[in-house]
Design a protein that fits this description.
single chain, eight-stranded mixed sheet, alpha/beta, 2 domains, 454 residues, Alkaline Phosphatase, subunit A, two-stranded antiparallel sheet
């Protein structure tokens, strides 16, 4: 057993080429962070459990009549798009009246999809150029700078976009705006990872990227799981655990192995390639399976407190992916310009509902994992789900479709639909930052104040 376990900031199972972070286990006692024990840790709930924030983006807006509940207040009636979220309504808020006016055309003309993506988490108007890239620092990176020292990874950036372009994309805007949500500076996007295998290796492998690649090659050659390399450490760990924690450890390791098995099933021969490769190894052919693998990896990252801040670009705005498996063979973006043709409207609503179902599965998984305080991961999270286009047909950026899931450790007023009366989306981000422990942070992007009614 590693003698340092319990003395560093996290508990791990270690082996040759493996470093498997563990969930909270009461038998091991409290985990010490890098900060002094007397200092309060940022991004924690009233019970001391980690508080997490994630920002999930879906493309091309949503059909308004199928999205918005008919009346504000508690326990609203959810329309067809949000109906899959009914089981999670006690942990959910539907927010109307939040705007991203930085995405409006103004003098720049066309390019609403690039602006929708590029301004969503920053509230800063992007520069219309294919080469002179200027955006704004995104809220996730503001949070990561505050709370990232408490975790292995300050933030995690995920995407399901595998064929990202460079140069000019939407009407002369740099592709960087359309394919990135997270920005560490006005000129530096945080490149999101689309390959679930590479995310898995980052979470559970050990050493440099080159070493992780070599360890993966060896495991493939020997047809072994990453858990095979921490077996002895796991056996020693179990001796320190009570009955309940042994069950919790077994459930967690089973979950890790299940994700790894799914990766192995979809992988092609050879090593995973870079994020810019046209056909990266390890990416499922089915879009839904790809999304769920990334969601499962995000659950594992939160469960092991590997990070407390994440972004997930499910698809870039303007995505023209088809959904033949639900009877929609046409491209999503093409259909979003429906000109109120009811057949097209219904098909877009079906796509909107499909995305919501994927989100609901993610919430179910978060809700099924106990945190350090006995509450669920979902209870101790704040999960934004939304997009930078309101009506994809008209390319509007006011009254955006925005949900906030999770109880924020008990600090949020959930189970309701609230109209916020035309406030910047960044006001919501200020309210979330306040709960994450970001001090003296009263303005961000185009904010006009802190959204307190959340």
């Amino acid at each position: 057993m590693n003698p340092q376990l319990g003395l560093n900031r996290r508990h791990f199972l270690r082996g040759l080429g493996a470093c498997v972070g563990l969930p909270a286990l009461a038998s091991l006692g409290p985990v010490r962070l890098l900060a002094a024990a007397t200092e309060p840790s940022p991004a924690t709930t009233a019970t001391g459990a980690p508080l997490r924030a994630a920002f999930l983006y879906f493309p091309n807006g949503a059909i308004p009549r199928a999205w918005w509940p008919s009346a504000t207040g508690a326990n609203p009636e959810l329309k067809e798009t949000l109906e899959p979220l009914r089981p999670f309504l006690p942990q959910l808020q539907v927010f109307g009246g939040l705007d991203d006016k930085c995405a409006n055309a103004g003098p720049d003309g066309a390019g609403d999809h690039a602006r929708a993506n590029g301004t969503f988490l920053s509230g800063v108007r992007v520069n219309k150029s294919a080469t002179d890239v200027r955006a704004g620092i995104s809220i996730d990176q503001v949070l990561a700078r505050q709370v990232g020292g408490a975790t292995r990874f300050p933030s995690l950036e995920l995407t399901c976009e595998t064929n990202r372009s460079s140069g000019a994309c939407d009407s002369g805007y740099a592709c960087a705006y359309q394919f990135n949500l997270s920005w560490s500076s006005p000129t530096t996007p945080m490149t999101a990872e689309a390959n679930p295998r590479l995310v898995f290796e980052r979470l559970f492998g050990a050493g440099s990227p080159e070493a992780r690649s070599e360890n993966l090659r060896r495991r493939r050659l020997e047809q072994r799981s990453i858990l095979d390399f921490v077996t002895e450490d796991a056996r020693q760990m179990e001796k320190r655990l009570d009955y309940e924690d042994r069950g919790k450890l077994d459930q967690y390791l089973t979950g890790v192995r299940e994700v790894e098995a799914r990766l192995q099933k979809v992988e092609r021969m050879g090593d995973p390639t870079s994020v810019n490769a046209p056909e990266p190894a390890g990416i499922p052919s089915g879009y839904g399976e790809h999304l769920q693998l990334m969601f499962d990896l995000l659950v594992l990252a939160f469960q092991t407190d590997s990070t407390r801040v994440a972004t997930f670009l499910m698809a870039h705005d303007g995505s023209n992916r088809s959904f033949a498996d639900i009877g929609v063979p046409e491209g999503h973006h093409d259909l979003s310009h429906h000109s109120n043709e009811q057949e097209k409207v219904q098909k877009v609503a079906a796509i909107d509902r499909w995305y919501t179902r994927q989100f609901a599965q993610f919430l179910q998984k978060l809700d099924g994992v106990k945190d350090t305080d006995g509450k669920s991961l979902l209870h101790n999270s704040m999960i934004v789900y939304g997009g930078g286009n309101a009506d994809g047909n008209a390319h509007t950026h006011v009254n955006l479709p925005i949900l906030l899931a999770g109880n924020g450790g008990g600090s949020l007023r959930t189970g309701r639909y609230v109209r916020h009366g035309g406030q910047p989306l960044t006001n919501l981000f200020l309210g979330m930052a306040q709960r994450m422990g970001v001090q003296k942070f009263e303005s961000f992007g185009d904010s006009t104040g802190i959204l307190s009614d959340i």
